[in-house]
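<discrete_fold_record>
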Amino acid sequence: MRFVRGLSVAMGLIVAGCAVATVSPVQPGAPRSATLASLQQGRNVETQVDIQRLKDTLAVLSGKTAMASGQTIPERGTVNGRELTRQFITGTLEASGYTVERHKYRTNGENLMVRLPATTPTDEWIVVGAHMDSVKNAGANDNGTGTVSVLEIARLMRQVENRKVNVLFAWFDEEELGLIGSEYMAAAFKKQGMKISSVHTIDMMGWDADKDRAVEIERPDGVLWDYYQMVNKTHGLNLKLARTDSGSTDHVAFRAAGFPSVGLCEEWEGGDTTPHYHKKTDTWETVDFAYLASTTKLFTAAVSDLARKVPAPPATKFVPHNKFPGRDHTCGPNHDNHAH
């Protein structure tokens, strides 16, 4: 949701890896039913998505209620507001048993991330993230909803067994200034040769005026469009999914670095999107939590299946993103024209 300049990256994350991988489709003739049957353990973790926890967490992030320290977070756009946000997210993750890594990439820019190692050792990673900043407002929908969704997935994924892929959960800083945090992180992962099979980001998931539970799947690379459709069906979620070419949010940064990526959003292109976008009225009271919960279930199910290497559907012909309708998230000129 902004213009990004070319960024030089000098980071020292320690991540094992090599080449970029893709999600493996089912091979012709493979006993799919038998393969899937062997991967059922933990497959329904999305049923444990807790709508009250989503409400309570977002209430703190949007300044409706205070942190344990007594401080409130009225906005997440200033340096102080973003630091309070990091403190709250860090405490929440540590309470779930994670060790939080602060990825400081410049004086006033700092991402957060945690790692969930696979049960079986591997150098393959899935990245799941959302931007945690706002435009100096409460930012309940943009992007408090994405932030709490990723927090919920991180909490639930710890109980999923037979994980065959490592998962890295990330909260990006300075998205509203030009995808800055995600660009620094993506460039660092590329420099390290991190083996990332897919990146999944979520941005704005709290508005559903027509109550159709529709989710836009933005620029799904490789088999990711087919994968989300498969998960939606096999997990009995039955949400309305629409593929779009919308950009100017964090999945763009990772794709540009060479990693297969996808974004999730409310109906930004379809028109059923919050009228409070980038306004002071983007508050907790405007969020449709039932809708946020239903999408978080889809997101959790997809990450869980990918982490356990549930096979993708048989490969289909990939259709270029520009064949689908799209609308960029904008708050500045040349929002989607990134220099790397």
